[in-house]
Amino acid sequence: MTATAQQLEYLKNSIQSIQDYPKPGILFRDVTSLLEDPKAYALSIELLVEKYKDAGITKVVGDRSTWFSVWCAGLRWRWA
Q1: One GO CC term of this entry (predicted)?
Q2: Which neighbouring-strand residues pair with 30?
Q3: What CA–CA distances, in Å, run from 63 to 22, 27, 69?
């Protein structure tokens, strides 16, 4: 599945942008809003898995619990 412009726009709009956080000049992209939208969350996982399904990935390391939950959801599709 290749992402359409409409799908990418939907995902982009589901991510909250917070200006000047945590300090002036920073535009923080908060993916919490994406995770709270079941349609956006499912679409993001579907596109992520599609992009990397043939990359031979066997392990994933992350420094944030948010991304851990994203990859765990992706694993469902990998071994389904």
Answers
A1: cytoplasm
A2: 16
A3: 18, 20, 12
Quick count: other Cβ atoms within 10 Å of Cβ 10? 17
At residue 1 the predicted structure's pLDDT band, cuts being 50, 70 and 90, is low
How do the residues of the chain divide into helix, strand and coil, expressed in percent and rounded to 5?
50, 10, 40
| 23, two tokens | 């300090």
35 strand-pairing partners: none
Parse the chain into domains and list their residue ranges. Answer: 5-78
CATH topology of domain 5-78: Rossmann fold (3.40.50)
